[in-house]
Specification:
The protein is of the alpha/beta class. Helices cover 44% and strands 16% of the residues. A hairpin with a 5-residue loop joins strand 6 (183-186) and strand 7 (192-194). The chain is globular and about 50 Å long. It catalyses: AMP + ATP = 2 ADP.
Length: 248
C-alpha cells in the first residue's frame, strides 16, 4: 500500500501554495522560472466563472498528489463515491481531449507518447473547462487528482478555489514502475485494472509491500488494452520528470 501523508487540513485563511511546498520542489521551479506564469494565472482567473463558496455550503474540496502510478486515482475514486463528489483527474482530462480531437489533441499526443509534462497552459485550460462544466451541472466539491503539479499551478489554483485538504501518496520507484507496467484499461467499458502482483519483502526497517492484482471481470478480460504511455521507457521518463519538478 502506498504511504499516505496528510499534509494539512488548513483553515480557509491559510495559503494552499505554502502547504504544497512541503511536497512540491520549490528549488526546481525557482531554477526554471515560467515566463508565461502571469498569462496562465490571469487566464485561469479571467476564464473561470467559479464563485468561492463558504465551506458550510459545499462539499469537500481536496487535492491528491503523488507520482504516476502511486494510486491517486484508486483512492480518489473510492473516496468520491463515499463523499458524493466528482473525481477530477488531469490524466483523464488529457485522454478525453485526445479522444475528442480537440484543439490541443495533436500537441498532447506528442507530449504523452514521450512521457513529457503537459504545459501549465493546456492543463489549466482543460481544468477550468471541467470545473465550470461541473458548476453548471450543480456539482458541489471535488477531489483533484494530479493537479497542481508545480508551485506555479498551486498559486494559480488558490486564486480561484479554496482547498480543504492536501494528501501526498508515496511509493518506492521500483514498485511504481511495476504498477504502471501492469495497468490495463477495458477497451469497451473504459474501467481501469492492474495485472501486476506485487510482493516485496520488508528489509532494513522498511515495511513489506503487498499489492494483489486488480483483475477485471471475465467479460472484460479479452478486451484489456495497455495505455500508450505505460511502456517502460515512457514511464521512466515520466518518473524522472516528476522527480525533477516535484518531490514524490
Amino acid at each position: 500500500m502506498a504511504a499516505l501523508t496528510r499534509l494539512s487540513k488548513p483553515t480557509f485563511s491559510s495559503s494552499m501554495a505554502s502547504l504544497l511546498r512541503r511536497s512540491l520542489s520549490s528549488s526546481a521551479m525557482a531554477s526554471e522560472p515560467n515566463p508565461n506564469f502571469q498569462s496562465h494565472h490571469s487566464s485561469f482567473s479571467r476564464n473561470t466563472n467559479l464563485v468561492r463558496k463558504d465551506p458550510k455550503d459545499r462539499n469537500v474540496q481536496w487535492v491528491f498528489l503523488g507520482c504516476p502510478g502511486v494510486g491517486k486515482g484508486t483512492y480518489a475514486s473510492r473516496l468520491c463515491k463515499l463523499l458524493d463528489v466528482p473525481h477530477i483527474a488531469t490524466g483523464d482530462l488529457v485522454r478525453e481531449e485526445l479522444a475528442s480531437a480537440g484543439p490541443f489533441a495533436q500537441q498532447l499526443s506528442e507530449i504523452v507518447n514521450q512521457g513529457k509534462l503537459v504545459s501549465d497552459e493546456i492543463i489549466i485550460n482543460l481544468l477550468s473547462k471541467r470545473l465550470e462544466a461541473g458548476d453548471a451541472k450543480g456539482e458541489s466539491g471535488f477531489i483533484l487528482d494530479g493537479f497542481p503539479r508545480t508551485i506555479n499551478q498551486a498559486e494559480i489554483l488558490e486564486e480561484v478555489i479554496d482547498i480543504d485538504l492536501v494528501v501526498n501518496l508515496k511509493l518506492r520507484e521500483d514498485v511504481l514502475m511495476e504498477k504502471c507496467l501492469g495497468r490495463r484499461i477495458c477497451g469497451q467499458c473504459g474501467k481501469n485494472f492492474n495485472v501486476a502482483s506485487i510482493n516485496v519483502k520488508g528489509e532494513n526497517g522498511h515495511p513489506a509491500i503487498i499489492m494483489p492484482p486488480l483483475l477485471p471481470p471475465a467479460h472484460c478480460m479479452s478486451k484489456l488494452v495497455t495505455r500508450s504511455d505505460d511502456v517502460e521507457e515512457v514511464v521512466a521518463e515520466r518518473l524522472k520528470i516528476y522527480n525533477e519538478k516535484s518531490t514524490c
